Amino acid sequence: MLLPVSDADEQAAGELFLQAGVDPLRPVVVLNPGASGGTSKIWGPDRYAQAADMLIEKRDVQIIINAAPGEKQIAADVALRMEHSPIINFADRDNTLGLLKSILRRSELLITNDTGARHIGAAMGTSLVTVFGSTDPLWAEINCPRERIVSVGAPCSPCGKKLCSQIPGPMYHQCMNDLTADLVVAAAEELLDEAAGVGR
Predict the structure, then answer these.
(1) CA-based angle 150:41:151, to the nearest 5?
(2) pTM of the entire structure?
(3) Which of 65, 70, 72, 154 is most deeply buried (CB count within 10 A of its CB)?
(4) 117-136 confidence digits (pLDDT tens)
């Protein structure tokens, strides 16, 4: 999978990284906490925030929070719950698909729900940690060797529904609520080590 990038978007991404003070010697990790296919596909902002803080503390990464126009609130919620500040948060600024492509091209890792940014990241050669709940990883397979799929295999998943149909209680949104930040961070660290050539 290949996607073109424009000179204008490359320049915009470079300027954005420069303004944000991105350190080229430290990994950049993009969080994509939104999803257009319903709330069942969304891992909670608190979990994204926890995973981001863990990676900052353990791996000295730099965090960018991506947001489509209708996802600014969830991006803001992630940043609000983080103990450390992201270097760039698209809750506070506008993004475009072109700029996102150039940002992902410059980033080591994308942590995302099963959504469009996942496919863009794969095309840009970015390592991916994809959180799956209501959708079926086999149905959504993209054959990306640099992707790690994280799911907990709840009894009712994959249901394919936009909204969780379980009644409030321990089964409600279990596919995402039972998925811990530790699982996502472990997958992220594995990919960061591979990118750095650790153990080779």
Answers:
(1) 15
(2) 0.91
(3) 65
(4) 999 999 999 999 999 876 76
